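May I ask you for just one protein sequence along with its backbone structure tokens in two labelled lines?

_____
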Amino acid sequence: MGFPTPHTPFPLPSLVNLCKVQLSVDKMISHRTFLGTLFTVCCFAVLAWLNFAPAVIALGGKLPPVNQPAPEFTLPTNTGDGEVALKDFRGKWVVLYFYPKDFTAGCTLEARRFQQDLPKYLDKNTHIIGVSADSVDSHAEFCDSEGLKFPLLADTTGEVSQAYGSWLGFLSMRQSFLIDPNGILRETFVKVNPAIHSAEVLARLNELHSDAF
């Protein structure tokens, strides 16, 4: 059939082709190993930077300073008059929280916790506002799906997220800000655990209320 027998030398062209194939495979494996190593190193570098960077810097940019006026904003929303501005909440406390994406696991859990604790916030003259790069329609579906009774704002250009140091180029970063009735930023939360974040914010809110009296 033309196949080489054990005593027949393997044709030279075939040996050359086999060598070329092996060399290509070795290059592919080496390239993948390099990329994997590079990705791992980058991840460790980011984690190290987050742990040792100054408090005023976050992965999403420079955070607004505490005890200074919070950046003003007006954004479209899925509720009420279709637009919400920070100035609308003068005389009230505001929990302004940024999150990456509607319907994702962490963002859904975080929103549920805020909704569960909403009566406690209202008892403290505090309103919750969520912000992400999702559209108004997406926010409306998310609120309907989860029974959310607080507004979600559509920061589709990332302008407001950038002002709060919470923009990653195409989505908002999970960070929160506590703003007092005079529009002054009183607290920032940059390493947010969605499962316990609402309880964390409530605890800090209680402390600030106690300091005021």
In short: Helices lie at 12-52, 105-116, 118-123, 136-146, 159-163, 197-212.
